[in-house]
Amino acid sequence: MSQYLEKYQEFATLLEQFRSDVTQNQINTPFLRQRLRELQQWFIQQIVPICDLDWREQSYQTEMSKQLRLLEIDLIFFQGARQSITAEARLKTISDRLTTLIQYCHAILQ
To answer: What's the CA gap between 73 and 13, in Å, rounded?
Structure first.
């Protein structure tokens, strides 16, 4: 496996861990915000510098960057939720977005 594919595999693992954190019953919003910042920084430091990508991989990388930014907005909406039903819906949206990011990683790995 080439080095950049290992980076995508590692990123998928980090995303799966974050999704696991999101689905726990005891949600700690500051902890989730910190984990998201770490994920975004890891993506910027490890994935973005990869420059020998074909057009397909480049488009996935661009989409992943967009999804990470949207994930940050989803987390802000979750934090602002006042009713439990709204908070649950926001957590589902966050989990779905993480699933999408994981699928992008797997698409690049194949």
So the answer is: 22
Which residue has 């439990």 as its token pair? 84
Q: Residues 7-42: pLDDT tens digits?
A: 999 999 999 999 998 887 667 888 889 999 999 999
> Does the predicted model carry a pTM greater than 0.85?
yes
Chain segment 57-107, per-residue pLDDT in tens: 889 989 999 999 999 999 999 999 999 899 999 999 999 999 999 999 999
CB 23 within 8 A of CB 94: no
